[in-house]
Amino acid sequence: MPVVGFMSARSPEDSAHLVAAFRRGLGDSGFIEGQNVAIEFRWAHGQYDRLPALADELVRRQVNVLVAVGGEPSPLAAKRATSTIPIVFGVGSDPVSIGLVESFSRPGGNVTGVTLMTALMEPKRLGLLRELVPGALLVGVLLNPVFSPAARQLQELEQAARTLGQRLVVTKASTDEELNAAFAVLVQERIGALLVAADPYFDTRRDRIIAVAAQHRLPAIYQFREYAVAGGLLSYGISITDGYRQYGVYAASILNGAKPADLPVQQVVKFELVINMKTAKALNVTISDNLLSLADEVIE
Questions:
Q1: How many domains are there within the chain?
Q2: For residue 284, what pLDDT is reported?
Q3: Distance of CA 204 to the CA centre of its chain
Q4: What does residue 217 show for φ and ψ, rounded to 5 degrees?
């Protein structure tokens, strides 16, 4: 029975629906876990420094394909661990610029996958947040400095802020202690709104971040629909479940004999704006008619 190694920077608690989507992608090609394929799971729980050891474990296990997802740190660790085992990645930025593949159409080597482009959407999220709270003198930004796209995220946010004439308070966190300190700074600075940058570590702390935003009555925007469903005010990004289903489709293609070099990198291009009206009422935030008209989903 072939074995798929599944390595994520996220945690199983916040990824159950994503794993289900991945299994659907495998199932579309006839691969059913426990019947004709086995899956070995490894989770970093938002601690990126654990990923190299997890990748080494799966390489020693001699898996038939290594699916490395949950953001850039996971496939980068996988690529360093093996140049022979096929790798299917999931990232939120440009895989060419970070050295995963040679090009979208011809990935080359043993690596291919899907980009969700979510880490490139920070300026768009800032614009939506400005429309939501036009009177906010200060907008807080929560950023993970050890996340590979962080430097680009910050650069693009600062450029967008200058264009909009918006002042930012940027805080950085990659551990729970730093997250507590970042929240303390944001509250002390009396920010009027919060932008949580795209980052898998923040995904693993989703409920906590939403709770703090609610406690301090902060209108906030996030990257995935899951945040809005969990009580976040606004989310703007791709359908992450579509991405995970595609990871399964590509893993199945490789199990059927396809070579990663022959599978072009896919892009998830459908973006969705989700508004939680219950949270808006709790925060006493008025959602403009324009934002409502742009919304793909409104949670009452």
A1: 2
A2: 94
A3: 10
A4: 55, 50
Q: CB burial class (10 A; 0-12, 13-18, 19+) of residue 105?
A: exposed
Residue 9, pLDDT above cutoff 90: yes
- The 10 Å Cβ neighbour count of residue 6 is 25
Q: How many CA atoms lie within 13 A of 14 on its CB side?
A: 25
Structural domain of 139? 119-237+272-299
Residue 105 contacts residue 111 (beta carbons within 8 Å): no
Mean pLDDT of the region 107-130: 93
Residues forming beta bridges with residue 171, ordered by sequence position:
142
Residue with tokens 């296990």: 61
Distance, CA of 70 to CA of 46 (rounded, Å) = 9
Query: How far apart, in whole angstroms, are the C-alpha atoms of residue 70 and residue 113?
Result: 12
Q: Are 11 and 18 in contact (CB under 8 A)?
A: no
140 and 209: one domain?
yes
**Judgement on whether residues 256 and 125 belong to the same structural domain of the protein:** no
> Is the same domain home to 212 and 146?
yes
Closest CA to 207 of 223, 174, 229: 229
pTM comes to 0.92
Please check whether residues 15 and 114 belong to one and the same domain.
yes
